[in-house]
Amino acid sequence: QGTRDHPPAQAALRERLLSAVVSCFKRHGAAAIDTPVLELRETLMGKYGEDTKLIYELQDQGGELLALRYDLTVPFARYLAMNKVTNMKRYHVAKVYRRDNPATTRGRYREFYQCDFDIAGQFDPMIPDAECLKIVHEILSDLQLGDFVIKVNDRRILNGVFAVCGVPESKFVPACSTVDKLDKMPWEEVRSEMVGEKGLSPEAADRIGDYVQLHGGLDLIERLLQDPKLSQNKLAKEGLGDMKLLFEYLTLFGITGKISFDLSLARGLDYYTGVIFEAVLLQQEKEHVEEPVSVGSVAGGGRYDGLVGMFDPKGRKVPCVGVSIGIERIFSILEQRLEASGEKLRTTETQVLVATPQKHLLAARLKLISELWDAGIKAEMLYKKDPKLLKQLRYCEDTGIPLAAIVGEQELADGVVKLRDVATREEVRM
Amino acid sequence: QGTRDHPPAQAALRERLLSAVVSCFKRHGAAAIDTPVLELRETLMGKYGEDTKLIYELQDQGGELLALRYDLTVPFARYLAMNKVTNMKRYHVAKVYRRDNPATTRGRYREFYQCDFDIAGQFDPMIPDAECLKIVHEILSDLQLGDFVIKVNDRRILNGVFAVCGVPESKFVPACSTVDKLDKMPWEEVRSEMVGEKGLSPEAADRIGDYVQLHGGLDLIERLLQDPKLSQNKLAKEGLGDMKLLFEYLTLFGITGKISFDLSLARGLDYYTGVIFEAVLLQQEKEHVEEPVSVGSVAGGGRYDGLVGMFDPKGRKVPCVGVSIGIERIFSILEQRLEASGEKLRTTETQVLVATPQKHLLAARLKLISELWDAGIKAEMLYKKDPKLLKQLRYCEDTGIPLAAIVGEQELADGVVKLRDVATREEVRM
């Protein structure tokens, strides 16, 4: 349940999609690493907030207690700490596992690919953070998925907001995970969850509401930097200052048109400590567009400066920022689009079919195809002793093989091969 | 335990190795599929003989009872049956899981990659089987791993041998798994296991010994076809006839020099029904070579005509033959060789580092690198506001970046970039 086989047509589309993402990561100088699908259970505990219950555990069959990885970020942090790496730019494309309620039509599965790019190391503020946003922008533009917006916020700003609204520090995390639901439910419901389930005072909730419904650009950052309450809060001031710097760099990258500083963005995971972001596709209405509707997140990430330290015996921190591309949702979109277009994706790369027009020529086919393979040419033949020529040519048409190399009795006698262009039916002897 | 992280240098070597294997599979017209790492437990049970105990099971957290896949063959057969596919040539490169005693120095892990190529469908005898052997030959030659031999046998011949030696049919499977140990222990030990643990009569064991110590080529096949006892056994006769045909095709492929018909080859898995094979590397002794010593199996496979039927509600069979490349052992060899050579593999593909020679030029770097990325050029910069030029050039040397694009105050004023060849120190303004 919640997993799927990929038949050849899907596997080919996925390969195309993954290779577009990976070439962007390589364009930005990232190296690949690989980590096991299995992690020690204790490595994964206490990293995913309310979602820890979604971790798949392995049966205790003796030996270590294991679980399947939930994402690629925690294994990356564990890798850095274990190997005492303090400086690295890596990508990782691999499957992760969540015992979630699958919603397969929207591309939500229990086993799915993640494509992660992360920068670890002590650097000047916001330079790697800006590059992560540039990467999201490049990938979503390359894939031509339609209009999108990248929402940006900062955990320090959110925590500052909670502080100046009178939320006690012990309730920052629950308040944050409630704010996170603003993209799925209206403010009124979020407010009642804050007051009801999370035990915030109605006044605090109302004050939070005034802030988290704001979104904008550099102007909003400037306004909040002047905000009499927020500007007095150390965390918020730091966050807003960095946000301003980030926008400066994004302006140099020429991508601020797709960036929205959005105070409702919270992100569910515990480990974020600074900038957070999430890219959503905007639905293109065929009629008059009132307000573009979000069709869901296709990329997300942020800064997590404390995670590596949790795996180091001496607690040594390695600041990190990274992005994860939501490849499954993108895959669903591309798949639907391909289906609608009626285009048929080739699932093999075969260049030539070796064929014979008469019986008793299997040996000639085997000799020729062996020569072609040894010369690095992608070649197939039918696995029948005496297939009909028509059947062999139809196989080319069905699978998109452009050429047929035909050896008949005459060709054998003359020491030639007849090369046929399957589409045009042109033939040359060579 | 028994798993490992792959740091960038290993990941790069692995990518190179996998891409050599995959291009061979594509050269033979195979399409990719992907299946989940998780399978239902019941799917995996009863397929792996004594090794069933090595399957990793997931904890029962409600819902289906799951396990991690043990190989890629059983999931492929399950895929064919579930989707009613009766004809397919596919490859699959993915990780599999075995709770084995790891021997990591010899490339044996609990999580490891398999690279499988299989041909499913009802075809004329031995044509797809011969192609599988051709593939092993191509890959091992391409990778230049040194001398190798591909041992070939047939389960029908083995079962015929057991029958004519007086082994009751109920003991074919245990007898077979004991013969399989002949590559690791001498005949005397195998014989005593047959008689002691498996309960064969000493006479039967001795008769088996006379057969399973034979190996050769077409001459041996001909001799056994004349063998007064074996030639009376239907199974053995079928197997030997097909083996003769196989050698005919392999002669046309020009690869019989590396093929040995070896009656001691048994292969551990339950599901094989016909041809079986295994490739081993031969150790190159520096001194006078008495007899080349095997350093272990690097590829194996065979025909399994009954497996798909086990997953079909009506038991409909789909004949299959396939090969699995033992990528981990090959990886260990290549890794040791790379280490010995002192060659350093680049872990990134960055073409140019964007650098500045003076302070306060971060904006110029960000603008230029953004242009390069947008033009599809692989570019990096240091994440410091004001890095020293020497440090930037050293980064190029350390990571193998061939070019530096330098923008200083003069270049900015002139509207040019200074492109420097890191190795030769030549510079051009452009």
TrEMBL record, chains A, B:
EC number: 6.1.1.21
GO CC annotations, alphabetized: cytosol; mitochondrion
Catalysed reaction, written as an equation: tRNA(His) + L-histidine + ATP = L-histidyl-tRNA(His) + AMP + diphosphate + H(+)
Binding site for L-histidine: 71-73, 98, 114, 118, 267, 271-272
Molecular function terms from GO: ATP binding; histidine-tRNA ligase activity; identical protein binding; RNA binding
Family as reported in the entry's similarity comment: Belongs to the class-II aminoacyl-tRNA synthetase family.
Gene: Hars_1
Record PANTHER family: HISTIDINE--TRNA LIGASE (PTHR11476:SF7), HISTIDYL-TRNA SYNTHETASE (PTHR11476)
Keyword Membrane appears in the UniProt entry: no
Protein name, entry field: histidine--tRNA ligase
Gene Ontology process terms (BP): histidyl-tRNA aminoacylation; mitochondrial translation
Keywords: Aminoacyl-tRNA synthetase, ATP-binding, Ligase, Nucleotide-binding, Protein biosynthesis
Source organism, top-level taxon: Eukaryota
Record-annotated Aminoacyl-transfer RNA synthetases class-II family profile domain positions: 1-357
